[in-house]
Amino acid sequence: MAIATGGAPLRVDASPAYDFLHSMALLVNASRAARLPDGSPWRRWLAETEGALDPLERRRMRRWFGGQRPLGISYALLATSLSGDHTADALIAAIADLTPVDFARWLLLSVVSQGNDIPLDTPALLRCQGDLPAAMRYVDRHLRLTGQRRDYLARALAEPESARQELLALLRRHESAMRAIEPAARDERERAAERLRTLIAPPVARLPAWLPRAADFSRFSSVALAPLVFHPRAVTPYSADISRV
Question: In this structure, what are the phi and psi dihedrals at residue 3, rounded to the nearest 5 degrees?
Answer without folding.
Answer: -105, 115
